[in-house]
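User: Could you walk me through two proteins back to back? I'd like the raw sequence and the structure tokens for each, with a short line separating them so I can tell where one ends and the next begins.

Assistant: Of course. Protein one, sequence then structure:
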Amino acid sequence: MAPKKASSSASTPAQTEKPHGYEFGGPIGALFISFGLPIACYAFAFLCNDVSGCPAPSLLSPTKLFTPPILSSQAGWQHALDVLKVEVGWPGFSGLLSLEAMVGTLAWYGLSLLLYVLLPAKEVEGTELRSGGKLMYRMNSFSSALVILGICAAGTWALGPDFQVWTFINRNYLQLMTANLLISFALATYVYVRSFEVKPGNKELRELAAGGHSGNMLYDWFIGRELNPRVTIPLLNTEVDIKAFMELRPGLLGWIILDLAFMAHQYKSYGYITDSILIVTVFQALYVMDALYNEPAILTTIDLTNDGFGLMLAFGDLVWVPFIYSLQARYLSIHPVILGPLYVTIVLGLQGLGYYIFRQSNSQKNAFRTNPNDPSVAHLKYIETASGSRLLTSGWWGTARHINYLGDWLMGWSYCLPTLAAGYKIVPSVLTPGTRLVTTEGMAGAAIPITYFYMLYFAVLLIHREMRDEEKCSRKYGKDWERYCQIVRWRIIPGIY
């Protein structure tokens, strides 16, 4: 059942790309991202919480954290820290991980792997490697997702919000984040150490990423030293492309599973599902299922063709995507926002526009790369580079060099707008002792930096990715790329950027 490697003799070996310079700020940037972003994940989890509110009340008036007599003393800082610990529900360092959460996380990865092996799959040939030859990929992530979502649907039908998967996630949210964080660090270390086995001309078609063997240990561990690390699973006798597997399966589908768990939490707490959380969950599920359905398209992305697999991708796939991208649903599970017909129409229109641009542009690019003579793309204009590649200068890709990023970003807006623009506080109920109420009194605008973080972050991410794409293409095509940029002037937003 192991995916076979395509014969390297069937195609002319591509030119080997020379190692290029540092990205992401080099070793210093790698250090900051590797250990700074995990802290950011915990910050979002604690500062927007179901103990005191979103954001934690003291953060709206930081001066109140300190008592005047000890304003600048060590005792003052300790007092402030103690107050914050109470407000955010700090469980102590030992409470950040539990055996239950670790076992559950490993079971999730095991289920994903089992479905990868057992379900029927399509064998798809990847793009040509720089050293020549092509790898084969086993693809069945969409059917795997349908099986998992079907199980969750059946469990919810039978047990409602008390279905064990939903209660397990909501009970162990922090601990699940920690478990995935540890797995991402362990995985990055494993592939880094194993990358030193790669030898030129090996029969397994293993090669190093052009930007991943700088010689700096920290940077190479972060950026990814090996381009396409693979491992054969004992007993199952199945080879798994680690990067492709992690890119689409545990984390991406996990994002939607978290959303659904938060929806169940809202229903259990309030007895109804709001239009806002429904919109967010459906839109994000559409985005994920679309990616899984069009799984072969991943083979032409920069992640697969250019980036090595290190902590950058491991952490991004397994921690950042599921736990940060589901922030809006988690917020709405505690603070139920009802939008009404007008807001729903606006958000639906924005999502529809973004999805149309994203899907149509990517489909056009993939069709042209797969078969330039296909009737749907045969009429498009292009320039041919010295390397033999063709660059589209009409259609979607004649309007902007990265027009798909515009659609991606517009969809990001539709994930954030349903949260509107107010934070919430959780206060004891006067009418029913022992219970709590969620209120927005005095919180107008307080949650904007939190629930709109995805949209702001995604803008930075896409612009940075666009800059990396431009640099890569400039190295690859040289003067032909300069000529292409003169024809297609705009980068992402036609007429603006």
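----
Protein two, same layout:
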Amino acid sequence: MYLTRLNAYRVMWVIVMYDLPTETKLERSKAAKFRKQILEDGFQMFMFSKYIRHCFSMENAQVHIKRVKSLLPEHGHIGILCVTDKQFGEIQVYHGKKQIESPNTVQQLELF
């Protein structure tokens, strides 16, 4: 029980939220490139323009945050949020008024 609780506070989720301009063909191309690059880094779509990535520690999360920062396009708004597995596990997701199942969390393998 203690290890599970400790892991829930050590394991992190990185959330990238963005609103990029898409008025011109060049802007759409840059937005698509940014999306493709964060997907290649292991992020998965949570909602439109909101992507999540599971990290086993804050140190690992910082590596991916730094990588996302290196990919930032010149224009647009990008937010990067890091939350613990415990906090992310409390999320309530709705489709209209109907509550839907929360995203699957990654199971952590423990070796003794």
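The chain has four helices and six strands.

Let me know if you want the two compared in more detail.
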